[in-house]
Amino acid sequence: ETGVTQTPRHLVMGMTNKKSLKCEQHLGHNAMYWYKQSAKKPLELMFVYNFKEQTENNSVPSRFSPECPNSSHLFLHLHTLQPEDSALYLCASSQDWASNQPQHFGDGTRLSIL
Amino acid sequence: KQEVTQIPAALSVPEGENLVLNCSFTDSAIYNLQWFRQDPGKGLTSLLLIQSSQREQTSGRLNASLDKSSGRSTLYIAASQPGDSATYLCAATAYNQGGKLIFGQGTELSVKP
Predict the structure, then answer these.
(1) Chain B neighbors of A92, CB-CB under 8 A
(2) Are B23 and B4 in contact (CB under 8 A)?
């Protein structure tokens, strides 16, 4: 059973829609992450929040907008997406943004852009 | 720039076989090396984490080794079972980049009954 919960599990949206992905962790962690997993490509880190402050933005297009209102919740707001944005979006958390801390992953949101 | 490669991309073995999955990385200045398992439609489950000062880690039928000088890590699975069928991912954490994980593309393992 994962301590990181992502909703929705599946999302289909048109290119002009606005939607949000939600991630919630009940592990008492202070760092939260968004990753993108495309077919046949390695996982790509998108954003990192450490103690609610954004510490990493891995050159992600502005049509993806993260929000971290508290240490337990992380959102990814989506707007005017492109077909190539179709992917599995994974959320993870860890004790903090430190190199020796294991990350715990949610089951992801499968996003399809029409 | 750190790059992580996993070979083979896919592997099919009969039940009961011992097997080795390979992971290589280009920059030996890593903090640690992690192995994850991903089942279809699911997230990642951490299997083993090897710190840079360690040579190997063991958990049940799994043994992971790390050789920083050669830029290689292996995941050994003993007496494979159909329930081991999944995609196995390795990820390296580089120095001075916080907790940033650099992932390989994964090895898709199928264990046939």
Answers:
(1) 43-44
(2) yes
